[in-house]
User: What shape does this take?
Amino acid sequence: MINKKSILAMTVCTLMMVSANALAELPSGNNDNTINTNPGNDAGTQGTGGVVHFTGKITDASCNISTDSAGQSVELGTWAATYFATQKETTRTPFHISVEGCPDSVKSVAVLFDGTKDSTDNSLLGLNSAVDSEGNTATGVAVKLYESDRNTQIKIGDISRSVELAEGEDSKTLNFYANYNATAETVTTGEADADANFLMVYN
Assistant: This one.
């Protein structure tokens, strides 16, 4: 499970490794293990420096994703292609992701949704290559995700709003909505399936 703060910690490790390589390239005669930060007169006028301070935290564990959330299938319904001639979006369908067994160190939880982005609108989830009984995949339509308020879009590749865990609480259900969203003036018939990957983000 990926922790947002752990990602920051991994970035720090990368910076430290680069610094270690720089140390390895020092001339062998330099035995005091210090780096000369004075580039000399040939470097031109020197300005003021500063410090970049990285912070982060490694937690003891993460929550467990409930069994019914890990591989769920959300039915968005069957819609006539002509429907999209007057309507851009279909009815929103609810779905949820639940976590349990959260340690005390987890204070809030959110979801990062990822997957194949629609080629016309990269904020939407593109359809996969599944076909119907006639061998067709729908075109001109994609899947749109929403927060629990049914109005705030969650763009593919973005993190949802965080939901806090009360003191002593070790489980939480995050509610979302999804629907079809037209991406072209003409929508053609066919299978309209899409797959969203998700990662839990803890704070």
